[in-house]
């Protein structure tokens, strides 16, 4: 008899703790992370190789009926923001609610100094970027851009109305 009462009390307390404790689940957007480790990277890369990366995005937008969804790309859990309101939220709250970061795969290739802030890195990038758009640099790119454009027109526009 005593054993039944004590088991009942223990069971009742466990049930109350489970159902009445505040939920610790994260408030995440809809979506799936795909396979362990690789996530949805293969599907994303397949769409990129076909020249239609937007297909990956539009499929998820229609599946989850949301312009914000979660996925896993390049070994990292990722949240994708689509549309003007999402971008406005993203850029209005940089370093407040959100913090920019690079995936570990990119950090391995281009290590950033832990002593510099994201603002300092942005200033450094702004100083480096104009070098790529100088007339001398653009002259080197013209031949490559012309070849790529001709290949694109030959493959995708030839004899098509």
Describe this structure in a few short sentences.
It is found in: Membrane. With 161 residues, the chain is mainly alpha-helical.
Keyphrases for this structure?
161 residues, 7 helices, 2 strands, elongated, two-stranded antiparallel ribbon, mainly alpha, 2 domains
Overview of the molecule:
The protein has 161 residues and is mostly helical. It contains 7 helices and 2 strands. It has helices spanning 2-20, 41-49, 53-64, 84-92, 104-109, 118-128, 135-156, and strands at residues 68-73, 76-81. Strands 1-2 form a two-stranded antiparallel sheet. A hairpin with a 2-residue loop joins strand 1 (68-73) and strand 2. Helix 2 crosses helix 3 (53-64).
Q: Class by helix and strand content?
A: mainly alpha
Total domain count: 2
Distance between the termini: 87 Å
| Shape call | elongated
Helix-strand layout with pairing:
Elements: H1 2-20, H2 41-49, H3 53-64, E1 68-73, E2 76-81, H4 84-92, H5 104-109, H6 118-128, H7 135-156
Antiparallel strand pairs: 1-2
